[in-house]
Amino acid sequence: MSDFEEEFSSARNNNSDSPKLGRNRDYLWEHFTDIGQAKTGGHRKCHCKYCSSQFNYAKIILMYRHIAHECQAILQDNPQVRKEVIRRLLSLNNQEQSPEESTRKRLKRNTGSPSSTSSSSNSRQLQIDYFSARSIPLREKQEIDRSLLRAFIMCGMSFHTASNIFFKQFLNKLNSMYVPPDRMKLSRDLLIQETILVESKNDEMLNEAQHLTLNMDGWTDQAGHSLYEYNVVTETRKNVILALKDLSEFNHTATFLTDQLDNVLQRSSITSNIVKKIRAIVTDNPDVMKKMRETFISKLLHQHVLSLRCFGHAINLIACDVVKHSFSSKLLSKLSTVTTYFNQSHKFKAILKAEAKRTHVKKETFDSIGDTRWTTVADCLKSFILLRNPLETILCVHGEALPPKVLVVLKQKQLYREIDNLYCIMRVLAYAVGIIQANSATLADCYLILIYITRLMAKLTAQNDTKEFGRFVSKSGNIRLKEFQNDYYLVCFYLHPKYRGAGMLTKNREIVYRTLADIARKLEI
């Protein structure tokens, strides 16, 4: 039995019926039914009273994980049980301490001062080889195990690495007294303990927050799974992830997604109802998500919530439309030919680097265009602009050695003119996404981006060589950004502390006052 299980099993339920000999059964057994002896002696089998999930081995840690994270039926039958289970486990984690700390505190309580041995050892400077083979106190080992778990998770490493002989040799060289946890303890005991601590910190942030912005996004991963992520942002710009769900087995209707969102909000906080603190809900804008927002806000307890479309998704859609245009697709196809050759040819890649260094150009290679990241288009275009002089020198000196397909592209007279025109719009879109993804972005920033993109589209339309392309970009932008031309963004723009206008027009003043009054009424301010 692990240290974590022993700590949790030591919690007694005074009201439970138990035999006179042995320990009383844990509090969690109130929510499980004993269904007999397991195959291995000393273990019992059980099933959950709420969802009838069966456990062939009734281990306390697995039973806790089921009640706290897996059982969906408990939210409808008795939602307070989950909160109570997590509270009890958190209190046990806070109370646990190492034997060395217990001894030290007991000596200090009895004598009024720490032991003389401890004082003398602390005053003596330790040698460096002391740390390589010293015994590790329990509390310190638990902290090391937690750090090891975080390293595995954040680096994307498999838990099987903990059983690798070379990894064990590495840890043994650091300290031969440290025994790392196996993959089963990492994936069960330690992972659940870390989940508890993270949930506790998240609950503290949610309790302290007064205003929350709810975000919901769905995507398909490389394995073809349909994933949905739910998070909230506090007024101090702290992000709290509420849930990450795999909904591949279900039809993604607006009603179903609304029910899933309600379930997430119901189990998101232990001590408070965060629905009352939500001020806005933000999603992308397919028809199903738009209808889901409308359904969510139409409920009685959610009518104070503002419905907002994700601005970043709209910029992504505009960029995708721009890249798919015939002007862009033909140009990018030509640039891909040059980029592929110079990045794969050892000779010309080295020549390009040498020429870039000679002319003091900071860029030395061409950026490739990624299929899944349109922002790489702006990077590729910028690399051609920076490397124009080195590339023209190579064309003059080593042009005969270049393949015909590359020569045809590089000898086009309008090549760099076309690159400048496309980069003009892609640079702004990439910059806009960078601003939106910043932690300090506001609706006023979105409004300023709207103004800038509109002016840029008008500039492209006015030029003769890009008139057709500019009209296409303008049409796409107007369609994608139409929903953002609402009063919320206008109000935030005028209320922004950096706004230094000459006052508001009468029409705009009426809009601002009316919108502020409507928001105040919804929030009951």
TrEMBL record:
Coiled coil spans = none
Record field: transmembrane: none
From what superkingdom does this record's organism come? Answer: Eukaryota
Query: Where is the stretch described as Disordered?
Result: 1-23, 94-124
A Pfam family that this protein carries is DUF659
**Low complexity compositional bias, start-end:** 113-123
Gene Ontology cellular component list: nucleus
UniProt name for this protein: DUF659 domain-containing protein
